[in-house]
Amino acid sequence: MSSSTPNAVDSPAVITVNLFLCVVVFVSVFSFLIAPGGLAWALSKPRPKSAIPGPSGLPFLGLVFAFTSSLTHRTLAKLSNAFNAKPLMAFSVGLTRFVISSHPDTAKEILNSSDFADRPVKESAYELLFHRAMGFAPYGEYWRSLRRISATHLFSPKRVAAFGVFRRSIGVKMAGKVLSDMERNGVVEVKKILHFASLNNVMMSVFGKSYDDFGENGGEGEKLEKLVSEGYEVLGVFNWSDHFPVVSWFDFQGVRRRCRKLVSEVNVFVGEIIKQHREKRSSDGGDTAVYDGDFVDVLLDLESDNKFSDGDMIAVLWEMIFRGTDTVAILLEWILARMVLHPDIQAKAQKEIDSVIGLDRPVTDSDLDNLPYLHAIVKETLRMHPPGPLLSWARLATQDTIVGPHVVPAGTTAMVNMWAITHDERVWSEPDRFNPDRFLTEDVAIMGSDLRLAPFGAGRRVCPGKTLGLATVHLWLAQLLQKFEWVEAGPVDLGERLKLSLEMKKPLVCRAVVRA
């Protein structure tokens, strides 16, 4: 008697699964072979009549491995060159359709267009509540209200000038911390000092308080710094769930879990500060009093008009702290690394400071306009090492639109590779040479009108805190160069690591010698 075995005939379910997998593989390979830009562009409806040049990438995955590396900006720049696609290049990451500009003209079209006024909201940004804050809120009345409030009450020239004395006092404390580290260790690791100083600066503007522990001794300042650092980590990591919907079911990277834990801690931390402000306002004359205090007071004034909920306020305040800390510290670390590597440039800047201010009188904000070479050093560092080489956060096409000769379909994520533009020999002479003097012979605007160098972006989504950030960098750099000569304590590694911002791969460790 013969007996049948389970393997003799495939079950219909097995055949169906095999057929499905064959179809997926076929579609992926077919799209990989025929579609510029890869799978997401092959599936685009309607397909653009004029194909945007770009790599297909790996079947189904696209250029995913470019984004999991720490040098994404360099990889995309090389691909734009290879495909002769500097004006506009198409590519895919999973099912996400991208275009990227590596040319000033198309960059200006993207950044200034109302069709790119929105941002794609990453899962981590959503979980961290940033979709209710200025960075990721959809373009509309709520976003315009946030922008108007911050421009008037936090980033106006009057407010920036009002906090000049506090910025100067932080610079003095920072110099004292550098001196104590030198006495104790013989070297100084500047990153932590700069980061905590920057955090304190923003805390005073936003929350009306500061910390003196420089992130040490387990104090409240150290707790806040850990919250901010964890936020950078989860926002900076490449999250597969953003581009592969099936993966989002599993949260195998733990991004969602980490975000929710962080948000609960932020709610407690920021909520307590809001509570303290409410209590102070009540004791000083009632909840409806109008205050000219810090940014918390501004939002509490607006709360009485039912414009903001507690959740909205926490999201907005948290984003202000988060976004305001990173860029200043990272930029100053790159500048000091360049000063160590280029002692002749450092000496020229110090000669300028000595002639305008001297060694004994403290630097003030009013001195900064008289230090053009110091400004040139900052600009050249922004060109060589832009903190946001891909302008940090991308744009989203809200409808089918035209960029150059090409149609970009609605739902496409658009990026600008500012690093590629600032390292293009057709845009800049000797782009790989650190040469601040180039900005003494040509005054290049860096606030967004000239896309050859727009480190803060441009258009509706330009960084709102750019004036405050630059005022801080200029003042602190002048204070640190007036006080110390920055010299090597070993080889300086200019290797890069792109997380949320472009950091030094190996933090700068050097010696700071008191100038006599």
From TrEMBL:
InterPro entries: Cyt_P450, Cyt_P450_CS, Cyt_P450_E_grp-I, Cyt_P450_sf, Cytochrome_P450_78A. Heme binds at C463. GO terms for molecular function: heme binding; iron ion binding; monooxygenase activity; oxidoreductase activity, acting on paired donors, with incorporation or reduction of molecular oxygen. Pfam families: p450. Keywords: Heme, Iron, Membrane, Metal-binding, Monooxygenase, Oxidoreductase, Transmembrane, Transmembrane helix. The chain crosses the membrane at residues 12-39. Its cofactor is heme. Belongs to the cytochrome P450 family. This is Cytochrome P450. It comes from Deinandra increscens subsp. villosa.
